[in-house]
């Protein structure tokens, strides 16, 4: 698949190069300005598996497109971002140029309400159509899988409780130290 993917990426890059100049010339002649459009991209990394490997190729093509033609993308919307990402974004954002800051929008949860301001409901990716702040409410049956009341957590808790009752109480373990011999380098291994 590697050779086929590389060929597809090269063909895509060549196609973009061929389209770029005539399109730019046409738009400048008609509007007396630069090409201005909207391109929205989504990448859902969750639920990846080997049968979905063809999406990797699309991701690689999108990456090539992003790196070589970033001016075509007006805004990147990041949805369902974990808390850690949001925290890191708050630290990194002040360090970016204003133009870059405007291109990146980190949305809370699926970002459905914000995305509906710029696109139709039918255009939303399926993972943005669900309500709620994030993945904990993504289940189709409406059960919050992160809740302590979720059947899985109750079953796990009961199992652990049963296992602890089956073992004899032995008290706290003694904490000790372990000696580890670290070999010293020989004279030939020491470099001046």
Automatic annotation (TrEMBL):
Pfam hit, one: CRAL_TRIO
Protein name: CRAL-TRIO domain-containing protein
SMART domains from the UniProt entry: CRAL_TRIO_N (SM01100)
Span of domain CRAL-TRIO: 1-125
Species of provenance: Miscanthus lutarioriparius
Region Disordered, residue ranges: 167-192
